[in-house]
Design goal:
The complex is a heterodimer. Chain A is α+β, with helices and mostly antiparallel strands. Chain A has helices at residues 25-32, 65-80, 98-112; strands at 3-16, 41-54, 83-84, 118-126, 129-133. Chain A is 29% helix and 32% strand. Chain B is built from four helices and five strands; from the N terminus they run βαβαβααββ. Chain B has helices spanning 23-30, 63-78, 83-86, 99-115; strands at residues 2-14, 39-51, 81-82, 121-130, 133-137. In chain B, α2 crosses α4 (99-115). Classes of the chains: A alpha+beta, B alpha+beta. The interface between A and B is medium-sized, with 19 and 27 residues.
Chain lengths: 136, 141
């Protein structure tokens, strides 16, 4: 049996503001620059999900794409698409940087997908920057 | 160690069908991909080779050489073909040409040839079926 990987890219539009409660207003402006704009701003994030496993001989697939899509839709896209990330309970105690968004999406999917299936989550904030997390 | 990746594209048609299943089951599992007249994609093949940069040339492998290897080993038989009907790995219902199996087939075709370039080895093959869907194989581990 051969282990292979299947990857899928999803788009998610959301707004955020980078602001740390523990820093002063000046420190926040210095640290986060225009990302600290009080009213926030938004991105079209691309969430890339890689799952790994044996290729099932009957189907030739590592995972059924429709099942993966449904899991991502229910647990990630429904929750974060067209929202303000700062208002999600998962970002009450942490700044919604794309680093933290990547970890949050990874943790949510790790919980929702069959054990051992998730390899990494990559989140592209713009075409020029992206973040990847594969667990601890 | 450095990893070097070369991209290539090919266009091919396929369908998904498990001969031991009923039509209903095939349609249930594979959806539109089970339509027997097939459909096609512009695939992107990414071939990653790992090795050390040669002290004289500074190359892991010569990219032109790698391009030719991909052309000879994979593209000339995959490009503008019906994978189920014309490509040996998949023909006669041997294997369903899913993106996963295409990645594995491309790996098997490339591994020996790439290994012939002293010191470098095939590290990863990734096949994009669309910009949003891809599969990857890293060999037996």
């Amino acid at each position: 049996m051969a282990k292979a990987y299947f990857g899928r890219r999803y788009m998610l539009s959301a707004s955020h503001r980078l602001h740390a409660e523990s820093l002063s207003a000046d420190e926040n402006r210095t640290t986060y620059g225009k990302c600290n704009n009080p009213h926030g701003h938004g991105h079209n994030y691309v969430v890339e999900v890689l799952v790994g496993g044996e290729v099932e001989p009957e189907t030739g697939m590592v995972v059924n794409m429709a099942t993966l899509d449904e899991t991502v839709q229910q647990t990630v896209l429904k929750r974060f698409d067209h929202t303000n990330l700062n208002f999600d309970p998962l970002f009450v105690n942490q700044v919604p940087t794309t680093e933290n968004l990547t970890k949050v999406v990874f943790d949510v999917l790790k919980e929702a997908l069959p054990a051992g299936e998730l390899e990494y989550v990559r989140v592209e904030e713009t075409e020029n920057n992206f973040f990847q997390y594969q667990g601890q | 160690m450095i990893e070097l990746t070369r991209r290539a594209t090919f266009s091919a048609s396929h369908y998904y069908w498990n001969e031991s299943w009923s039509q209903e089951k095939n349609e249930e599992v594979f959806g539109r991909c089970a339509r027997r007249n097939g459909h096609g994609h512009n695939y992107t093949l990414e071939v990653t080779v790992a090795g050390e940069a040669d002290p004289v040339t500074g190359f892991v492998v010569d990219l032109k050489w790698l391009k030719d290897v991909i052309e000879h080993e994979v593209l000339w038989e995959f490009d503008h073909r019906h994978l189920n009907l014309e490509v040996r790995e998949f023909a006669d219902n041997k294997l369903i040409p899913t993106t996963e199996n295409i990645a594995i087939a491309a790996w098997k075709r490339l591994e020996a040839a790439v290994g012939q370039a002293g010191g470098s080895r095939l590290s990863r093959v990734r096949v994009y079926e669309t910009p949003e869907i891809f599969a990857e194989y890293r060999g037996e581990k």
